Amino acid sequence: MSKLTLALVAHDHKKPELLIWAKQHLNVLEQCRLVATGTTGGLVADETGLEVQRFKSGPLGGDQQIGALIADNKLDALFFFWDPLNAAPHDPDVKALLRLCSVWNVPVACTPATADLIITSPLFLSPDYKPVKPSF
User: What sections of the protein cross the membrane (predicted)?
Assistant: First the structure.
């Protein structure tokens, strides 16, 4: 069975929440291949000891690099703790990333509560579960 590939992304004000969440779910995350935007990936690796492939910072193209994984059917879930109260200069990239998850039926969590529900689902690590992918 190949490992699930998960993307971890967090806006600046949400990085502490993502780090707390990642530490709470180390036992599952260590069974997955992790990718992340630049700063977030470095923090997750430093704080948890997990191996994380780091892309560019979100505003510098990291969101789009993760979007390419989605479009190429190489991402199994996105955990994106975004900050709805602070506008970011790369908001169009964020919207595009979330849109791609909907287009390609990729699970996405934007809050710790949703992330908890996804990662603790009995289907999450099940080799028998295959989400339906659209055919265009």
Answer: none
